[in-house]
Amino acid sequence: MDPIRIDEPDDPRIAAYLDIRERDLTGRQGRFIAEGKVVLDVLLSAQRFTAESILVLENRFAGLSDILRKAPLHLPVYVVSGDVMDRVAGFHMHRGILAIGARRALQPAEALLEGLQAHALVVVLVGISNHDNIGSIFRNAAAFGADAVFMDATCCDPLYRKAIRVSVGAALKVPFASFADTPAFIRELDRHGYDQFALSPGGGVDLRHAKRGKRLALYLGTEGEGLPKNLLERLKTVRIAMRNDFDSLNVAAASAIALHHFSGDDFQAEPQS
After folding, report:
1. DSSP letters spanning 116-137
2. 156, 187 in Cβ contact below 8 A?
3. According to the model, what pLDDT value does residue 23 have?
C-alpha cells in the first residue's frame, strides 16, 4: 500500500479530519473518527464498519505495516508531518493515527435480539450520558464476552471519538442497538426468555449469590441517580457488597465486576428438556 503525501492542512482530500473536537459535537454526516493504533486494528479486523481513509504521522507509517495489510487494497492512506497533523486536528495529536469510518444504519433492538444465541449475556444501559463510562462499559462487555449492548434514547453515542478510544475499539466490535420505550423493551426481553437483573447499591440479592439462566440482561444506570425507581421495582435487583461506610462504585467498575461474575463459573444453564 503506497501512502499519499499531504503537505497542506487545507488539502480537500483530508477535509473530513478537520477540527476533530468541534466536529465531534456537531456530527460528521454519517461518519466517525477512530483514533490510535489499537482502534485502527479493530476497525480493519472486525469489519463491522467500513474505513474510508486513514491519516498517519510520517514517523508512524512504517510501524503500521501489519495492520494496513488488513485494509482494502485501494483504501487511501494519507501521510503528514506533525505540524500538518496538529493543524488539521486542531490540537496536538500525540498518537498520530486517525481513520474515518462510515456508520451503518442501526439494527433495531428487536432484530438484534432475534439473532442472539441461546446462551446470551446482554447489557442494557439506561441514562449513561458520560462518554468515558460508555467506552469503559463497552470495553468490559468485550472482555467478558457480552453478546450485545442495548441503550435507551438518553444514552450518549458509543461512536463518539472519545467513547471509541476509551473502549479500545470495543465499540466497533460489540453489537449494539438503541430502544425508545423501556417498558416495551422489558417485555421483549421477557418474550425471549431473559432473566433481567438491575444492578443497584440497594439491590435485594448479593451479586456473589446471584445465579442466572441461559439468557441474562444486566441493567446499568447513570452515575449518582442510578436506575429509575420504577425500573428497580419491576426487575430483580442485585448489589455489589462493600463496606458499610461506602455506598457505590463507578458504573464502569461495577459493570466489570458484574460481567465477570455472570460470564464465569457461576453460569448456571437450565437443563435442556
Report:
1. S-SSEEEEEEES---HHHHHHH
2. no
3. 63
Mean pLDDT (whole number) for 108-136: 96
For cell 444465541, name the residue. 117
Cβ–Cβ under 8 Å, residues 166 and 133: no
pLDDT tens digits, residue range 138-187? 999 999 999 999 999 999 999 999 999 999 999 999 999 999 999 999 99
CA gap 64, 38 in Å, rounded: 10
47/59 Cα distance (integer angstroms): 26
Is residue 42 within a helix (H) or strand (E), and if so which, with residue range?
helix 37-46
Q: Are 103 and 30 in contact (CB under 8 A)?
A: yes
Q: How far apart are CA 238 and CA 224, in angstroms?
A: 17
444492578: which residue's cell? 199
CA distance 151 to 179: 6
pLDDT computed for residue 269 by the predictor? 43
All structural domains of the chain, each given as residue ranges with its CATH number in brackets, are: 4-102 (3.30.1330.30), 109-263 (3.40.1280.10)
Rounded to an integer, the average pLDDT of 71-85 is 95
pLDDT at position 271, please? 40
